[in-house]
What does this fold into?
Amino acid sequence: MRVLLQRVTSGVVRVNGREVGRIGHGLVLLVGAGQGDGEAQAVKLADKAAGLRVFNDDDGRFNRSLFDVGGGALVVSQFTLYADSRKGRRPSFTDAAAPDIARPLIDRFVDELRRLGVNPVATGEFGASMQVEIHNDGPVTVWLDSDGLM
It folds into this structure.
């Protein structure tokens, strides 16, 4: 699995003009599942994202996590994190997990964030065309990949 994590002052996701998820200060987590991913990857990445120290302490150093700052998480499924654009001009997504595999993994990722105590946890809508409004803070953007964590 892959996560593109962005520290935000706020984040909103809409589907057909209808707001489906919103957070204030926290993290927007764009999450994709790949071929061969399973529940272990979802759990490990949720734990990593929630505990990652990307929020400033009083000295301006990255020493605080979502738990320390009481931040929320907005999780948006994004198969395009598995784009392969090495050949040609149109990316291939063959490394992305099929929707029937990816959906439960994204759901498990969300469930694990909630189990860990992240509050609130908002989501987009799996498989929908979404408009995501992200107000980056910093900006701070971090790439997480389960390949390096398992």
Remarks:
- The mean pLDDT is 97.
- The chain has one domain: 2-148.
- The domain at 2-148 is CATH 3.50.80.10 (D-tyrosyl-trna(Tyr) Deacylase; Chain: A;).
- Residues 67 and 90 are 40 Å apart (CA to CA).
